[in-house]
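Q: Give me the 3D complex with benzoyl coenzyme A.
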Amino acid sequence: MNTPAATGAPPETRGLESAFEDTIARDQRVEPRDWMPEGYRKTLVRQIAQHAHSEIIGMQPEGEWITRAPSLRRKAILFAKVQDEAGHGLYLYSAAETLGADRSDMTERLIEGRQKYSSIFNYPTRTFADVGVIGWFVDGAAICNQVPLCRSSYGPYGRAMVRVCKEESFHQRQGYELLLTMMRGTDAQRAMVQDAVNRWWWPSLMMFGPPDDNSPNSARSMAWKIKRHTNDQLRQRFVDMTVPQAEKLGVTLPDPELRRNEERGHHDFGSPDWAELQRVISGDGPCNAERIARRRAAHEEGAWVREAATAHAAKQAARTREGAAA
Ligand code: BYC
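A: Here is the predicted complex, encoded as structure tokens.
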């Protein structure tokens, strides 16, 4: 157990540490000004930075389709969704800043490959059906993972998740509605949907992370109530939620082992290729290099905006000082 004595906390922080443990035990929120163990702060910065980077990199696979969307309506919807993802990234960077992380440092770490982002965004979007399947699977997986994070023990993270989840629900429904429309279309459109489902199913299951017996961070994060469920529990929830939706849509999920297990009250399913997940996480997925190169270029192209904003802030601060001195 992580009692103050067990963690070997120095005497001067023991009272603080037991107050922190008490907050967690009572299911109350830890706020930025509260004392927290360094491990708790570091775990949160790791997870929140990775989450923020995922939202920002996640704009790329779908963003590529904005100019090619088949109608003005689809273009407007996709534009709005990709903009929402930028917004999610910004709330999350702000949440990480409340823990003392520096935004430009996080960006540097991302483009130097020292901080991770979700494996899912390293796969290519080949057809417009991929846009629908990303909404259905990827945003569906995000909802399963993130709704429990609304109760995360760290206040700013949990509160950011409330708004993010509302928008993710809209994203998921737009994806599913797009696919329903395509399934009512031609044979070629139905084939495009099935092909996209086949390509995105396994990578979507990998979004939940490695299996529980190979997830080094889960136990600690769950004890601190940063994570509320294990990777496998959330993966199961996603499969159970998605199977009836696939039946309604009229597509097959590409897993011969997938079947309802009445005894367990859940679906049994096959195992994703965990070696593939490791490869993608370590930088060797189909689009890792392209995603990072694009992010690096966008960061460099935006340098003048950051410089202008800094110069403007300095001018305003000088004016305020002059006003106060006058
Ligand atoms: N991809 O001990 P584990 C979105 C890493 S945004 C890459 O289980 P943990 C959306 C993991 O970080 C989707 N890396 O870790 C956006 C750890 O490495 P480090 C992002 C992964 O933290 C736009 C190592 O593997 N969502 O949905 O307990 C459009 C061992 O793993 C992955 C979030 O970030 C992966 N799939 O659990 C549409 C949600 N899996 O850091 C949609 C918040 C594992 O020790 N994050 N790793 O070097 C979480 O819930 C957790 O961090 C995870 C991993 C479940 C992802």
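A quick observation: The radius of gyration is 22 Å.
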